[in-house]
Amino acid sequence: MTISVKGVQSVAAVTIRNLSDETHRALRVRAAHHGRSTEAEIRDILETAVRPAERVMLGSLLASIGREAGLSNDDVDNLQLVRDKTPAEPMSFE
Q1: 3-state secondary structure the chain
Q2: Is the pTM of this model over 0.85?
């Protein structure tokens, strides 16, 4: 994961403790089978687990809803003209 803050990049790091030798060996074998390092294999496994290909992508879903409703680009432009542009107020939990 890369995080950019005003041009500065930071990469998150994760340490996994108490991984069994069998699991580590299986990861090394799987990585070799895919032609990559064990670390790259673990990154791919985690990425696939938390961001599956079949996940709903909000932008695509909204575009689909707009198409089903028969909205044109002109309709969207008109909605932009009349929408409330007042900045949202932060919630207060007090």
Answers
A1: CEEEECCEEEECCCCCCCCCHHHHHHHHHHHHHHCCCHHHHHHHHHHHHHCCCCCCCHHHHHHHHHHHCCCCHHHHHHHHHHCCCCCCCCCCCC
A2: no
